[in-house]
Amino acid sequence: MEQKLSRLYFIDAMRAWAILMMLQGHFVDGLLDPVFRDDSNIVYATWKYFRGITAPVFFTVSGFIFTLLLIKVPEKGWQNPRVMKGIKRGLQLLFIGYLLRLNLFGLLKGEVYGSFYLVDVLHCIGLSLLGIIGVYLLTTKKKKYVFPTVLLGITMVLFLLEPMYKQWSFSFLPDMLANYLTKANGSVFTLIPWMGYTAFGAFLSVVFSRYRAMKHLYPVSIAVSLIIGAALIYYSTPLFKVLFDTTGITVFQGLVNNNYLFIRLGNVMVVFAVFMALRQFLTNNTLLRLGQNTLSIYVIHFIVLYGSFTGLGIYGFLHHGVAPAIVVPGAAIFMVLCSYLALQYDAQEEVIKTRIAGVLNTIREQAEPVLLFGYRQLRASMSWLLRVIGFVKS
After folding, report:
1. CA distance 257 to 261
2. What is d(CA 192, CA 68) in angstroms, rounded to the nearest whole number?
3. Distance separating alpha carbons of residues 211 and 188, to the nearest angstrom
4. How many Å apart are CA 341 and CA 300, to the nearest integer?
5. What is the enclosing helix (H) or strand (E) of 185?
6. Count of CA atoms in the C-beta half-sphere (13 A) of 340
7. Degrees to nearest 5, angle at CA 22 with 275 and 219
8. Quick check: 330 and 34 in contact, CB under 8 A?
9. For residue 3, pLDDT beyond 50
10. Count of other CB atoms within 10 angstroms of residue 358
11. Tell me: the pLDDT tens digits for 311-328?
12. pLDDT at position 103, please?
């Protein structure tokens, strides 16, 4: 049963679906001419709605998979090997997030552009994973229900208070830190409220793990997911309206006016139900490999579309200037290209890493004599200077 739990194919399929949706979503949104963005057009409205589901699904699935791996081992607390692996993973995502926003031409001129400090998906997921580890370590010696309760509590607090804190500019913080909390400076995603989806995915993972031996796990999970999803989509806004009318608390009025977080959470639950129902058909090897290589796909798409490092990307040349007749097939080609490159990297990852390590080792070997010579010359020069000014006797 442990081996079966270690690889849930419907989760990999969900990740693959989410990353492909992200690829076409970024491509179309970045290139489509504004004249064709008509919400009254059923095709565009449907595309826009499903595009809005992509990020919540991706954040939730990330929290689900990470926590499933974290809690499946018997060791607890710092003895759990997944803790250090998770910390490294979180820091790695932060590093890659900033790396993708570097511009080499700017660095050559001694400049770091303001876009470098903006926060995106990888930053938020990286910090969210570190946050989940923090909650895990703080609750590891508590009752079993404390860990999932705190995770669910994080989601509820972040989602319920969103109308209040979204108005804050966090101007008292340096921009690099404020960008994690506000979109005022141009960040695409922020830790609040998006950590809420990752925490909810972690909560689902704990619940799923606790009841994994239940005889009718999937039928019950599918039914519960559909019921909760439908309730959040269709009844959360009326509920907040009643709460506002009853209590007069303005936060509830804000949720009535813009209840996207809970509605999207309902969409996530419905997506979970659909993929669980179709789990027996979602075993295609290529699809599963895509779901297991989402980071590579994300990095490649960022370089090709947005021009990481060089600033030379498709987005810069065709920004909001393309008609649907070109954008639609272009998005399909873009998805295939990024997926193919990621799978090729996955197949050759060890060879690539070995070659990179070899190049770095060669550079080190060539640089060491030069650095050593420079160090000796510097030490000799300093000794001579100290003797000249009288600090050291000859």
Report:
1. 12
2. 23
3. 36
4. 8
5. none
6. 6
7. 10
8. no
9. no
10. 10
11. 789 998 898 999 999 999
12. 83
Phi, psi of 178 (to 5 degrees): -60, -30
10 Å CB burial of residue 2 (0-12, 13-18, 19+) is exposed
Contact 54, 16 (CB under 8 A): no
Report pLDDT digits (tens) over 99-122: 998 888 777 777 778 788 999 999
Residue 225, amino acid: S
Burial class (CB in 10 A: 0-12, 13-18, 19+), 69: middle
Token reading at 64: 């689900």
Q: Measure the CA–CA gap between 124 and 129, rounded to whole angstroms.
A: 9
Give the distance, in angstroms, between the CA of residue 131 and the centroid of all CA atoms in the same chain. Answer: 13
Strand partners, 32: 322
Confidence bin at 1 (pLDDT 50/70/90): very low
d(CA 166, CA 170): 10
Q: Can you tell me the distance from the alpha carbon of 56 to that of 10, in angstroms, rounded to the nearest whole number?
A: 17
The tokens for 140 are 């590891």
User: Which 3 state secondary structure label does DSSP give 7?
Assistant: coil
CB 54 within 8 A of CB 22: yes
Two tokens at 353? 């890493």
CA separation for the pair 128, 279 (Å, rounded): 27
Q: Where are the domains of the chain?
A: 2-349, 350-394
pTM of the model: 0.88
Query: CA torsion, points 209, 62, 181, 159, in degrees to nearest 10?
Result: -50
**DSSP line for 91-129:** HHHHHHHHHTT-BHHHHHTT---GGGG---HHHHHHHHH
Report the first-to-last Cα separation within the chain, whole angstroms: 77
CA distance 148 to 199: 9
